[in-house]
Amino acid sequence: MRPFLLVLAALLASPALAGEPISPRFNGDPSPHAFKSGYYLYATDDASNSGTYWDSTTWRLYTSKDMKRWADAGAVLDVSVFGWARPDAKAWAPDAAYRDGKYYFYAPVGGDKIGVAVADRPEGPFKDAIGAPLVDKARDANAGDEPIDPQVLIDDDGQAYMVFGTRVPKIVKLGPDMVSLAAPIQNLVVTGFPAADPKKKYGEAPFLHKRKGLYYFSFSTGWPGQIVYATAKTPMGPYAYRGVILDYLKISTNHQAILQDKGRTWFFYHDNLLAGGGDHRRSIAIEPLTYSTDGTIEEVRPKRAAK
Ligand code: FUB
Hints:
By secondary structure, this protein is mainly beta. The protein has one helix at 3-13; strands spanning 27-35, 38-45, 58-64, 71-78, 95-99, 102-109, 113-119, 127-128, 135-136, 151-154, 160-164, 170-174, 186-187, 190-191, 204-211, 214-220, 227-232, 239-246, 257-261, 264-271, 283-288. Bound molecules: beta-L-arabinofuranose. Beta-L-arabinofuranose is lined by residues 28-29, 44, 54, 92-93, 148-149, 204-205, 253, 255.
């Protein structure tokens, strides 16, 4: 195809609603996936929390065929799926993964444990995969003070990695069954934070993705946080700090996810975008993500950031 036709095609394919909330319902902590049957976006449900804390007990699912129009598929999971969870355990930023015909759902439950559920379809029904936490602060060495925000990358060789944690990022290899830890939990090391900015440090929202053989580790620097990233040649790191993907928003948390599909990359985040919104009533939005030729991620500047 001629270059101008390529540019035209890319422009036409851009999400029509870039930077707009994907739903009129409050939601946060995007976990987007391209599965066989379409796009699936799991999220923390901010519409059913108290409005003063992230104390919802359910996770929400949104689906799309074109990345532009998202249908609300309802509460796909409740903490009660995990029989060991306290009934009021808060349901925070989840992730999902597909392997060998099964869909796995990784979920921080109550701030001190991570559960894993499994289903035959992305919309569930999900059931507890192991009848116990996958990670438990009280049980597992080096689980960290707050084992939350799990995210899973399945590498090209089939090895799955889960990153998680607050203030100190953690990484652990998963077993081929996707529901066991295959090795001790390790700290994920990021080097080269700019000394001139003491706020540049790991906070939460760890996210691993791989592009052209390079591993990218993105995360929020804190509360409030920027989304920044570091890269490494191996999944376990150490990772070298590279720069900012998304600047501070006028909201206490910042939480991103990156989805690569059909040669394109999308950046998912949440902000205060709906009337009545705020720190605990967030809205997920999507922007295109682009790279320079040397693999540097270009900073995302949302067209519509909260004022
Ligand atoms: O939704 C509750 C918490 O807020 C998440 O676990 C964090 O990543 C932050 O977005």
